[in-house]
Amino acid sequence: MNSGIIALLLLLSLALANCGNVLLFPQETDTAYVQLTPKKPLNLQAFTLCMRVASELNNKRETILFAYRTSQADELNVWQENGVYALYLRSSHECVTFKLPPLSVVPIHLCLTWESTTGVTVFWVNGQRTMLKIYRRGFSVSPGGAIIIGQDLDSLLGSFDKNQSFVGEITDVHMWDSFLGAGQIKQLYEDQCHAPRGNVLDWNSLEYKINGNVVQVSGPEA
Questions:
Q1: CB-based contacts of 113, cutoff 8 Å, min separation 6
Q2: S-S: 180 plus which of 19, 20, 29, 184, CB 3.0-4.6 Å?
Q3: Mean pLDDT value of segment 179-194
Q4: How wide is the angle at C-alpha 48 spanned by C-alphas 85 and 66, nearest 5°?
Q5: Which of 68, 74, 73 has the alpha carbon at shortest distance from 42?
Q6: Sheet bearing 33-37, strands edge to edge
Q7: Facing residues of 66 across strands?
Q8: Does the predicted TM-score (pTM) go above 0.85?
Q9: Within a 13 Å sphere around the CA of 220, how many CA atoms are in the beta-carbon half?
Q10: DSSP state for residue 155 in the 8-state scheme
Q11: Band of the pLDDT at 64, cuts 50, 70, 90?
């Protein structure tokens, strides 16, 4: 077997292994987070964001699931708070909320889709969608910020509150600059290693930096 084929097989095996990686946030803290490097700027008129999440936190507590902020504003934040899931686009006050099953020790697959022209917004849980809602019609997400999981960005990479921090595990984070359909999202839920891969965030080849007490778990046990 020539060296080129060996290298290709090695790269394929590494990609398949990466799809099982889990980021574990073991405790409340105002220091632990993971900064994600996107494949392209978040200049978005539509997006689909997916992840697998497990947590024992009280669902009445404010818990950040995904944060993207520029120096000017919170551009795109996803929360579980007061028994609902919420999407905030360039706002800390005006959001759209969905009543969904609370997080638990059993990982659930969450997706969120949004499109600017109509404002249509929908959550997906384990391949099943919620009702449609309208939010931020005509809005766009601005580039040039920082993406993190584990903490809420009250300033660019700072001003964290441990009472809003994420505690639990997150894996299979993907993001697209388009509104994915039902078939694609169902495929993502059913087969994380062979499903479509995000063109903004791709968990299989994601670049990220761990800060503080976050543990990366890899291998079959993940």
A1: 46, 47, 48, 49, 120, 121, 122, 124, 179, 180, 185
A2: 184
A3: 90
A4: 45
A5: 68
A6: 95-98, 84-89, 74-81, 63-69, 146-149, 33-37, 207-211
A7: 78
A8: yes
A9: 0
A10: B
A11: very high
